[in-house]
Amino acid sequence: MPDTVLENGADPALKSLWAAVLTAARWTRGNSAPLQAPCTFVADPLDGLRAVADTSPEGLLQAHPSLGWVACAAAPPAAQAFFDLYLPLCNASARNPLTIAHLGQSLDGHIATSAGDSDYVTGPENLSHLHRMRALCDAVLVGAETVATDDPQLTVRRISGDNPLRIVLDPQRRLGSAHGVFTDGAAATLLVCDEARIERAGEKVGAAEVLGVPMHEDGLDLRSLLTALRARQLCAIFVEGGGRTVSAFLEQGLLDRLQIAIAPLVTGAGRPGIHLPARDRVADCLRLSPRVFAMGADILFDCELRGAGDPKAMAHPSTGTLRRII
Ligand SMILES: NC(=O)c1ccc[n+]([C@@H]2O[C@H](COP(=O)([O-])OP(=O)(O)OC[C@H]3O[C@@H](n4cnc5c(N)ncnc54)[C@H](OP(=O)(O)O)[C@@H]3O)[C@@H](O)[C@H]2O)c1
Fold first, then answer.
1. Any ligand 1 atom below 6 A from CB of 145
2. Residue nearest to ligand 1 atom 47, measured at CA
3. How would residue 237 be classed by pLDDT, with cut points 50, 70 and 90?
4. Which of 78, 110, 128 marks a domain boundary?
5. Atom of ligand 1 at shortest distance to CA of 146?
6. Which range of residues forms the domain containing residue 52?
7. Does 121 sit in the ligand 1 pocket, CB within 6 Å?
8. Which of 78, 107, 136 is the C-terminal boundary of a domain?
9. Domain check: are 58 and 105 in the same one?
10. Which range scores top for mean pLDDT: 6-15, 25-34, 48-57?
C-alpha cells in the first residue's frame, strides 16, 4: 500500500512541509561551519523551521553532523515520503556538491515526440516536482536543443522558492539571442560554449553571460564546467534535459543522482531519453537501486549514483517500495 503525502499547492500541510524543506536547504548553504551536534526543528509558519530541544517529541527534522538532514521518528508518516525525496538535496553545500538529473519519459522511453514536442510528457504533479527541484538547486541546466525546441522559462512558478541560475550548453553558439532565457530577465542565465568560440572577455548573448570551457572530441568538458560552477559557489546543479545532455553527464560519471519519471504514455517513436554507448551483455549495463515514488499517474525512479556499480552497494538493493508524492 503506497504512503500518501498530501498535495497540492494550496494544501496547508504540504505547503508547510515544503517550507521546511526549502528552509533546510538554505540553512545548509548558509552554514559554513560543520555541525558539532544534532539540531532538531519543527515546522514554523513564518520561518519554515524553528529549533526545538533535541528531546522534543514534536521534532520534525534533524540536522545531523554526519548524516545531514534526516526526518525525526515523530514526523507524520505522510511526511516521510516527501522528506525522503527532497532531503538529499538539502545536504548540498560547498563541501558536498551535488549534480542531479531528471527526465520525464514515456513508457516506451521517449522524452518528446520525433518532432520535439514534450508539452507535457508527465503530469502536473511531476511538473510541481520539477519546480521544487529547481528551487532546491543553485542552477538548472539544459542543452541547446531544449532551448531551440521549447524556449523554456526554467523558473519556479508552481511552488514558492527562488529562481535558480539558468545554464544553457550551446557549444557551437547556434542559438539566437531572442530566446526567453536570454531576454526575459526572470533569472540570470549563463551560456556555456566551446572556449575556442569566445571572441572577447565579457561577451553576452542577450542578457546572458558567456562562459567558455574546453571542448573534446566527445563534447564539452563537463568536469571543467562543474569545477567552474563550484568556484562560483554553485553547489547544487539540476540537469533538466534533454536526453543528450543528461546522457553526457551520466556517461562522464558526473551525476550523483538520476531521476526518471515514467508517464503512462506511448509515443511509438520519439526523442530518446538516456542514450549511452552500447553494451553487449545485460550484466555489463548499469543496474541501479532506486527509490520509487508515485506522482499522480507517473512513477518516479530516484537513483543514487554515488557508488553505483559497486558490487557491495548492489548486494543490498533498496526494496523499491512505492511511496506517493501527489
Ligand atoms: N521530457 C523531458 O524530461 C524533457 C526535458 C527537456 C527537454 N525535453 C525535450 O527533449 C528534446 C531535446 O533533447 P535532446 O536530447 O534532443 O537535446 P538536448 O539535450 O536538449 O540538447 C543537446 C545539445 O546540447 C548541446 N550539448 C549537450 N551536452 C553537451 C556536451 N556534453 N557537449 C557538447 N554539447 C552538448 C549540444 O548542442 P549542439 O547540438 O549545438 O552541439 C547537443 O546537441 C526537446 O524535444 C525537448 O522538448 C524533454
1. yes
2. 118
3. very high
4. 78
5. 20
6. 3-78
7. yes
8. 78
9. no
10. 48-57
For ligand 1, mutation pick of 117, 146, 173, 217 (most atoms within 8 Å of CB): 146
pLDDT reported for residue 8: 47
Which atom of ligand 1 has the smallest separation from the CA of 105? Answer: 1
- Separation of 243 CA from ligand 1 center, angstroms? 6
- pLDDT tens by residue, 97-144: 999 999 999 999 999 999 999 999 999 999 999 999 999 999 999 999
42 and 107, same domain (yes or no): no
**Ligand 1 pocket test: which of 106, 130, 191, 244 has the largest number of ligand atoms within 8 Å of its C-beta?**
244
Cβ–Cβ under 8 Å, residues 275 and 120: no
**Structure confidence by residue, pLDDT tens digits, 181-213:** 999 999 999 999 999 999 999 999 999 999 999
Tell me whether residue 85 is in a domain: no
- On whether residue 304 sits in a domain, the answer given is yes
Instruction: Tell me how far apart the alpha carbons of residues 90 and 141 are, in angstroms, rounded to a whole number.
Output: 19
d(CA 282, CA 44): 49
> Same domain, yes or no, for 199 and 244?
yes
Contacts of 78 (CB under 8 A, 6+ apart): 3, 4, 5, 6, 13
CATH number at residue 206: 3.40.430.10
Residue 150 lies in a domain: yes
Q: How, if at all, do strands 291-295 and 322-325 pair?
A: parallel
Asked whether residue 223 falls in the same domain as residue 308, the answer is: yes
Is residue 48 a contact partner of residue 42, using CB atoms and an 8 Å limit?
no
Instruction: Specify the number of domains making up the chain.
Output: 2
Assigned domain for 89 exists: no
Beta-strand relationship, 139-143 and 165-169: parallel
Q: Are residues 51 and 142 in the same domain?
A: no
